[in-house]
Design a protein that fits this description.
241 residues; mainly alpha; Herpes Virus-1; Serine Threonine Protein Phosphatase 5, Tetratricopeptide repeat; 2 domains; three-stranded antiparallel sheet; 10 helices; elongated; Ubox_domain; Sel1 domain protein repeat-containing protein; Znf_RING/FYVE/PHD; Sel1-like; ubiquitin-protein transferase activity
Length: 241
């Protein structure tokens, strides 16, 4: 085969994890001399408690793993300088954004705490959907003074999502957030008064008052389009009845 037809080697070819076929975020060197993503090779090891063999050579190997820091640094430099591009680079950058978000949240950034809660709540950005973790991060955001976190802490308490249902405490949080200007909290209060949810008596006047706040401009907007439309429809029903 002529050299002109020979495929050029891509720098990423030697850097990807042979199990995931992605750039390893936490690369480690296994006893077979290959570099893997830590989670993928640990899973392989745990799935083979006896007679462990290399997933590449199929030869016997030990369980020891060694951090491949230089490998990670090389990947980071090549991605930052545009040498590695495409899906491999995009997935690496997504992981970097996740790590930054986690670090910021642990450092006390209430907005990052709230964002983590949303990621766990909806299973976005590579996070596994987990309402319990979502509630924990919303609660931490609330405790750090984040109004969005206060609203969602209240909603989760009202519904028993990721935490035991505590409606009285939920209403305290939702009411506090709505008073501060959260349209999400205002929506939940309005719908609760309109329909008698969570043990409340139906109160048309209060329902209209809170639902109007939910559809107006507010300091802390976090209401998805579908619920905004639901609020408008319920308002129209209440005002016409």
């Amino acid at each position: 085969m002529s050299s002109t037809n020979k495929r050029k080697r891509d720098p990423a070819d030697e850097l990807i994890c042979p199990i995931t076929l992605e750039l390893p975020w936490d690369p480690v060197t296994a006893e077979d001399g290959r570099i893997y993503d830590r989670i993928s090779i640990e899973t392989h090891i745990n799935n083979h408690p006896r007679g462990l063999k290399s997933p590449i050579t199929n030869k016997k190997m030990g369980k020891k793993l060694f951090p491949a820091i230089q490998h990670r640094n090389t990947i980071e430099i090549l991605v930052e300088n545009g040498v590695i591009v495409g899906d491999l680079a995009a997935k690496w950058e997504e992981k970097a954004a996740v790590e930054e978000l986690l670090n910021n949240a642990e450092a006390g950034d209430s907005r990052a705490m709230y964002s983590l809660g949303k990621n766990y709540a909806h299973g976005h950005n590579g996070f596994k959907k987990d309402r319990k973790l979502a509630f924990q991060w919303y609660k931490r955001a609330h405790e750090a003074g984040n109004v969005y976190g206060t609203a969602l802490t209240g909603v989760y308490l009202l519904n028993g999502w990721g935490t035991p249902k505590r409606e009285r405490l939920g209403f305290i949080h939702v009411s506090a957030a709505a008073t501060q200007g959260s349209n999400n909290a205002a929506y939940h209060l309005g719908m609760a008064f309109a329909n008698g949810y969570h043990g409340l008596h139906v109160d048309k006047a209060l329902a209209i008052s809170w639902l109007e706040k939910a559809v107006e401009d507010c300091p802390y907007p976090d209401l998805i389009y579908e619920r905004t439309e639901q609020a408008r429809q319920k308002l129209a029903e209440l005002k016409s009845s």
